[in-house]
Amino acid sequence: MAKIIVSYDGTASDEDALAFGRLLTKAGASLVLAYVRHTKEPEGRRERLAEHDAEQLLESGARWLGEPDVPRRVVLSASTPLGLRELAAAEGADAIVFGSEYRTTPGHVDPGTSARTLLDRGPVAIGIAPAEMRYRADAPVVSVAAVAEDDDASAAETAASLARQLGASIATKVGADVGLIVLGSKPGTPNGSVLLSAASQYLVEMVRCPVLVLARGVPIGFS
Q1: Integer distance in angstroms from the first to the last C-alpha of the chain?
Q2: CA-CA distance, 68 to 70, in Å (whole number)?
Q3: Would you tell me which of 4, 98, 151, 182 could form a disulfide with 115, CB atoms 3.0–4.6 Å apart?
């Protein structure tokens, strides 16, 4: 079973990440909600309060999903991408899902700072939800597209797995009816690392659906 970490901090854009996570659960994935705290309070009472607030925030995300028992992790790290990267390794996660950057045009995809950091040779697949996906979280996916620039079959294998689980078709080209796009990493990227080519970066800017960017040579199986 695919395991997906959803980065959640209570913002509207991270509700979009929850919506993408919900879509992936329909394909059989399991979710872990994660929030990264950047500092530890020096005084015990304040630290307990900060811990409580972080736990309450993740509980609100679980309520949004309608899954009160979804696993939740509060990570302490000076860096959000580093904290999530370490959590992904500890959890054996297949992907980390983010919402788009604050003030992204509705329907568009624009990775935020943490997502961009992990898209630059990170070790795990990265999902990015389009802005305001939260308002159409339960919309059916009609077709799934795979995009790769060489013979790396990871994107095609993952897209086929998703389509099978979601009852969707495989799109022969990226069009307006595509509900999810799986992107392979740039040719020449070391196996197990994520890196988009300039052409794939441009495609991300143009699409109007969630995007899953795979680490080179690492397909994700959904079942």
Answers
A1: 6
A2: 6
A3: 98
List, for residues 18-76, the tens digit of each pLDDT value. Answer: 999 999 999 999 999 999 999 988 888 899 999 999 999 999 999 999 999 999 999 99
CATH number of 3-213: 3.40.50.12370
Q: Where do the H-state alpha helices sit in 120-166?
A: 154-166
Distance of alpha carbon 160 from the chain centroid: 18
Element (H, E) at 49: helix 44-65
pLDDT tens digits along 133-149: 999 999 999 999 999 99
Please name which of 176, 185, 100 lies closest in space to residue 145, comparing C-alpha atoms: 176
* pTM, rounded to two decimals: 0.97
182 φ, ψ (degrees, to nearest 5): -110, 125
Query: Where in 65-191 does DSSP place strands (E)?
Result: 72-76, 95-98, 125-128, 143-147, 169-170, 178-183
Q: What tokens were used for 147?
A: 């995009």
Q: 81-118, pLDDT tens digit by residue?
A: 999 999 999 999 999 999 999 999 999 999 999 999 99
